[in-house]
Amino acid sequence: MMKFERTPKGDQISSKIDSFYEDGTFRSALKFSLSGILCWIYCVSIVAQGGSAIEKIVENYVADPDLRTAKISVVIQDLQNETTLADHNPSMIVSPASTLKVITTAAALKTLGADYRFETELSYTGQIVGSVLEGNVVITGGGDPSLGSGYLGTQAFEELLQEWVGATRSLGISEIKGQILADASLFGREGVPPSWATKDVGNYYAAGSYGLNVHDNLYFLRFQQGLKQGDATKVAAIEPTVPNFFMENRVITGAPGSGDQAYIFGSAFQPDAYVEGTIPPGASIFTIKGSLPDPAAFLVHHFRSALQEGGITSDQEGITHYNLYRPETSLVFHTTHSPPLTELVTITNRESVNLYAECMGKKMSHDIPEFSLQGFWQQAGVEARVLSNADFSGLSQQNQVSGRFMTDALQRIYQDPEWYAAVRTSLSRGGIDGTLKNMFKSSTTKGRVYAKSGLINGVRCYIGYLDMPGDEVYGFAVLAQGFSCSSREMSRKFERLIEAVLQQK
Fold first, then answer.
1. How many C-alpha atoms does 351 have within 13 Å on its Cβ side?
2. 3-state DSSP helix/strand/coil percent for the chain, to nearest 5?
């Protein structure tokens, strides 16, 4: 687990000043004072010129007519010199959208440790008599968001099931006279924050987070498209199978090029949902993704089926526990570990995975009494009273930050080389990967922007780091809420802003 590190600049400077006077160098330095002052004035003027240029760039950005009624908070910071180069409403409160993930994942790297791995255990109760287990097989969740995750490979879920079948087979059993029991109680039953919008819940990006998660807590809903606008559509498949689940289809065919405009409406632990909206016309299968209403029951169903296919029968249906659960004594026979936290943080930030961020936040809250993101950052030395989070991923519009808080957090991370390396590596790189893959593609900007984007209704935000000439690094926060143009156009405005900053040296 990483520790906070900060260079003791004040102590070093004080020591140098004392020795400067004590060893007599003060008198000998007087004759060089004039040239030193002139050099200092020149350096300050250069910095001021650069700062003024960047201030003008920010002024032009916020003067855009599309931002006239928007809440805008912009800060650009020289991290090496710890100076603000330009800002606009630095203390204004704005919803951060998914840029909050940087705040959550950075805290997780410090709190849980860069090498931390989530664990999921298989154990059994009762006893094994011959080739028969007279007891239950228990799956105990440790909050791992990456269990059978598609971000680890397209076959990760199937590979997980086969791993577990092999582990169970190693017990020498061919029959389970008991249940497959899933203990998902680590984080409790409330997997979906109450502040998430109803139109989001039911869709994959708003999947609940629990003590036991699997397959990114999502399913694929596949439609047979209609040939022309207004045609009915048909649900061709739900994959993987979601047991005891019914989907009502209200989706029709939209205009050519209209894209995915279908939304799933459902809620946790409910056996039915409906989907409405439009999908584009065509003659093939069109796929969207929904959130699993009961991830633990889904896992039990598929594990039990995989065991039966592998020659191990179970004579009882499975059972799940989401509330506080005290199981009978069991013997652990297999543990599945997640990738190291650094890898999960990279997936979280580059792919903007809400489930991963929520599980990291809940794990910190579980392990540390009275944990809060605000408290963590205050302890780290960042003024964080403006930070208010209703979730850990940024999907809630009740979250609040300011541009100043964001750049102060980036500054604090930068001061700790190990922490900075882990966070920086996790961010999307302009023109290369993640959510910035199609931005900053020119030869002068490609690979120089490391950032996290954020997008929810009426909100477009970016925070991150800029590689400047001379090995200088700038931190930035550009937060916008309530603009009158499209989110795509806001992205273009941000890109032009940062391109102009990158050209200043």
1. 17
2. 35, 25, 40
> Which residues, in sequence order, are CB contacts of 33 under 8 Å at separation 6+?
none
What's this model's pTM, rounded to 2 decimal places?
0.89
Burial class of residue 223 in the structure, from the number of CB atoms within 10 Å of its CB (0-12 exposed, 13-18 middle, 19+ buried): buried
Cis peptide before 193 (omega within 30 of 0): no
User: How far, in Å, CA of 451 to CA of 430, rounded?
Assistant: 8
Query: What token pair was written down for 263?
Result: 């939304």
Ramachandran area for residue 149 (φ above 0: left; ψ -120 to 50: alpha; else beta): beta
DSSP 8-state class, residue 251: E
Domains of the chain: 56-113+342-502 (3.40.710.10), 119-188+294-339 (3.50.80.20), 204-291 (no CATH)
The secondary structure element, H or E, covering residue 160 is helix 156-169
Q: Which of 477, 447, 449 is nearest to 463 (CA)?
A: 477
Give the separation between CA 277 and CA 281, rounded to whole angstroms.
13
Distance, in Å, from the CA atom of 152 to the CA atom of 29, rounded to the nearest integer, reads 62
H-type helices in 372-447, by residue range?
373-379, 403-414, 417-426
3-state secondary structure of 471: helix
Q: Are 371 and 157 in contact (CB under 8 A)?
A: no
DSSP 401-422: B-HHHHHHHHHHHHTSHHHHHH
pLDDT tens-place values along the chain, 505 residues long = 545 554 433 333 333 323 322 333 333 333 333 333 333 333 333 344 445 899 999 999 999 999 999 999 999 999 999 999 999 999 999 999 999 999 999 999 999 999 999 999 999 999 999 999 999 999 999 999 999 999 999 999 999 999 999 999 999 999 999 999 999 999 999 999 999 999 999 999 999 999 999 999 999 999 999 999 999 999 999 999 999 999 999 999 999 999 999 999 999 999 999 999 999 999 999 999 999 999 999 999 999 999 999 999 998 889 999 987 676 789 999 999 999 999 999 999 999 999 999 999 999 999 999 999 999 999 999 999 999 999 999 999 999 999 999 999 999 999 999 999 999 999 999 999 999 999 999 999 999 999 999 999 999 999 999 999 989 999 999 999 999 999 999 999 999 999 999 998 6
Buried b / exposed e along 466-484 (16+ C-beta atoms within 10 A):
bbbeeeebbbbbbbbbebe
CA 464 to chain centre: 14
State the Cα–Cα distance between residues 128 and 265, nearest whole angstrom.
45
Q: Residue 357 and residue 105: Cα distance in Å, rounded?
A: 7
103 alpha carbon, distance to own chain's centre: 9
